[in-house]
Amino acid sequence: MKIVLDNVVKTFENFRAVHGVSLEIESGELVALLGPSGSGKTTILRMVAGLEYTDGGHIFFGDQDATDIAVRERGVGFVFQHYALFPHMTVAQNIGFGMKVSKVRRSRAEIASRVEELLRLMQLEGLGDRFPAQISGGQRQRVALARALAVDPKVLLLDEPFGALDANVRRDLRRWLREIHDELGITTIFVTHDQEEALDLADRVVILDQGRIVQQGTPQEVCRNPGSAFVMRFLGDANRFDADVSKGEAALAGLRLPAPGVPDGKAHVFVRPTDLDWAGQGEGLPARVLRVIDRPDSRRILALTEQDEPVELDVDVDTQVAASQQGVLRIRRASVFAAA
């Protein structure tokens, strides 16, 4: 099922949460809506679900204008962050509930068969007779997803589904959810503020800020070619340096960096910690080591440039460096944006 949002607007009292968002999601695609709190991502998801109505624009499911269709008529499956399972029902009863109240009549045998099929798919075999309080958080989220899939939805909507789980469980469920999506091929919209989650799962990432789409693309495209300083900062650690741009080049402490398309004037140079190298001498930004932080698979250097700009960079675990050491920072990759 292809989904199209055409210039969608949503206002709550005097606050506009979504500003004319237009977006196409292809049939079978898994798209992540990524952004900080208040960026409009959950509001967009709720409008697609029919839990909120638009104040302007249209939402299409395939060729059908679904803008004003009631939530029960949209054929969507919705998974929330906090499971929303019925505590007095068993796992099997929770999964089968939607089929029992659906307009599409199924026999008890059909419902039982579908529940068993989903228990196998969700790796919950043998847990059908347990209650939600008797299983783990990760298992409860699998039950919530099974319940959403039980009614054969055209579209699957996930609102921060792993937010209540610990880091290790989230990582396991991300891999599992991707496998389930690839097997079933349901058009899926996934809301998260966790960059790693979005980049791990999605075919395409849509980044939102203050109710507007600021960039969209594959994980590789948004990571390697950030379109703005906001995206650069939001998608991970980034060092920022002040620079001056002239004729497509940024001047930074004696270095000249390419700055195509950036207008002449004040600018900011952003560099990821992984895009910097440390050297004892040679060409680069002169700096002094403040501290070295050791991690299982890397060393992080906290340094200070001659312009008193703090810098963080990751180096190989065998790199010999110590606090107070003088050296230079070599920039391998950078992004340049005009100063706001």
Please identify which CATH superfamily of the largest domain we are dealing with. P-loop containing nucleotide triphosphate hydrolases
Largest sheet: 6 strands, mixed
Distance between the termini: 40 Å
Structural class: alpha+beta
Q: Under CATH, the topology of the largest domain is which?
A: Rossmann fold
The chain-level mean pLDDT equals 92
Contiguous low-pLDDT stretches (5 residues minimum) are none
Name of the top-level CATH class of the largest domain: Alpha Beta
Continuous helix count: 8
Describe it.
- The protein is of the alpha+beta class and about 350 residues long.
- It folds into 2 domains: about 5-230, P-loop containing nucleotide triphosphate hydrolases (Rossmann fold, 3-Layer(aba) Sandwich), CATH 3.40.50.300; about 235-340, Beta Barrel (OB fold (Dihydrolipoamide Acetyltransferase, E2P)), CATH 2.40.50.140.
- It contains 8 helices and 20 strands.
- The protein has helices at about 40-50, 90-100, 110-120, 135-150, 165-185, 195-200, 220-225, 230-235, and strands at about 5-10, 15-25, 30-35, 55-60, 65, 75-80, 155-160, 185-190, 205-210, 210-215, 240-245, 250, 255-260, 265-270, 275-280, 285-295, 300-305, 310-315, 325-330, 335-340.
- The longest helix has 18 residues, at about 165-185.
